[in-house]
Prior knowledge:
Blueprint: E1 5-11, H1 23-30, E2 34-39, E3 47-48, E4 53-55, H2 56-66, E5 72-78, E6 82-84, E7 87-90, E8 92-94, E9 100-104, H3 119-137, H4 156-161, H5 168-180
Parallel strand pairs: 1-2, 1-5, 4-6, 5-9
Antiparallel strand pairs: 3-4, 6-7, 8-9
Amino acid sequence: MKVENIVLISIGYFETNLLEKVLHEVEHEFMVPVRIKEGHLDLSEYYNPARNQYDANKLLKEIDATFALDQDKTLGIFDVDLFIPILTYIFGQAFLNGRSGIASLYRLRNERYGIKSDEKIFVDRIRKEIIHELGHSFGLIHCSNPTCVMRSSTYVEDIDQKNHHFCNTCKAELMKHETTGK
């Protein structure tokens, strides 16, 4: 099935025009129109007090159940610290070849690491994480090319070292997905 739209849903409190700053690059990478919406969830249900973080697995399932439509790719954007049981934290995750994913701004700000605020770097990291997670929803797996947006990122420095574009291999795989729907 051809994807009609990519829907970026801001959940929580952050600058509303932040997603507008990355909209065109996301559209360009996927060649699909991007819409921005606001969504509301009671995040307390997903909070794990023992970890002082939010359960990404449960949030991803909620985004999929509450906001996702079959003909769209939907990405919930949060500003909370996400975890999955096997990792200390994550920047985001998505259902591989599914209709939804999530990403968090929480660990993308320089200030989190005791470094001077830099809006350009922050927006660049957001762009890369959104494109990366959407890439998974389009069926792409992690890439070994060090500059490809689909390269896995364990640390924020890993995000900084890659582009917000797909490498030729991932781009070809994405195009194959677009034409076959698989």
